[in-house]
TrEMBL record:
<dbReference type="Pfam" id="PF00179">
    <property type="entry name" value="UQ_con"/>
</dbReference>
<dbReference type="InterPro" id="IPR016135">
    <property type="entry name" value="UBQ-conjugating_enzyme/RWD"/>
</dbReference>
<feature type="domain" description="UBC core">
    <location>
        <begin position="6"/>
        <end position="172"/>
    </location>
</feature>
<dbReference type="InterPro" id="IPR000608">
    <property type="entry name" value="UBC"/>
</dbReference>
<protein>
    <submittedName>
        <fullName>Ubiquitin-conjugating enzyme</fullName>
    </submittedName>
</protein>
Length: 250
């Protein structure tokens, strides 16, 4: 089959529509295999009804499982829908067959998979039911005569997240932006502060007594030896150069 055939294009667009629906709903979740899935396992989380075993009491059921298979004739032909979880509804039989009213007789290929899920959700919450030609007569009789439950059982639209955001926007309330995780800062190792080396104290030569200086001077004069530590550098004073003299710069 060509990769651009109408069927493959439809399978692709249905998957994208279902992903968008799931993002906008806290009610619907699905699983499907492959890039072009032909079967979906869909779970609805919301208020519906079930009947206990052996004609037990009618009870609320808040988890619903449905399988939808897109056969070889889809979208020209209606997909196969099978209810997997217990449900009490006029248009769903005990073995899981689902009646879609006129769509079962005259299927409309333009009806997309996400739109079909909207129809199923409305059936679960008793927003949509038909008691004139039911699959479950007992449920039809109950729906016509009951006064114990306010219908629809669940007031939420399937795209409840989208509806809630639109309602907040109409009230001028901006959704709180998600807090971004702050990056974890790696502690920086402390850089040691260089310690200035202590300045060594100036060691001054010991001051010799005057008698010692005189004695060493006499010794030097007698021996002709000069002690360097006693020598004092003399300042050399040069005579000023006259106009006729030539001064050499050393």
């Amino acid at each position: 089959m060509s990769a651009t055939s109408p069927r493959l294009r439809r399978l692709h667009s249905d998957l994208r529509a279902m992903q968008q629906l799931q993002a906008e709903s806290s009610i619907l979740h699905f699983t499907a295999d492959g890039d072009l899935p032909e079967a979906y396992q869909i779970r609805f989380l919301g208020r519906g009804l079930m009947r206990g075993e052996n004609s037990g009491p009618i009870e609320l059921q808040e988890r619903h499982e449905v399988t939808i298979r897109l056969g070889a004739g889809y979208p020209r032909m209606m997909p196969e829908i099978r209810w997997k979880s217990p449900i009490f509804h006029p248009n769903i039989s005990g073995n899981g067959s689902v009646c879609l009213g006129g769509y079962g007789t005259y299927w409309v290929p333009s009806l997309t998979l996400d739109e079909l899920c909207h129809m199923l959700w409305d059936m679960i919450r008793y927003e949509n039911y038909d008691v004139t030609s039911p699959y479950n007569r007992e449920a039809a009789l109950w729906a016509k005569t009951q006064s114990s439950h306010k219908l629809p059982l669940d007031a939420r639209p399937l795209r409840d997240r989208l509806a809630r955001a639109a309602e907040m926007e109409s009230m001028g309330i901006k959704p709180t932006p998600a807090k971004l995780d702050r990056p974890v800062r790696t502690p920086v190792a402390a850089v040691p502060v260089p310690v200035r080396a202590a300045i060594p104290p100036v060691i001054r030569p010991p001051v010799r007594p005057a008698a010692t200086i005189a004695r060493r001077a006499n010794e030097a004069e007698e021996s002709g030896v000069m002690f360097l530590d006693d020598a004092i550098e003399a300042e050399i004073v040069r005579p000023a150069a006259s106009d006729s003299d030539i001064m050499f710069i050393q």
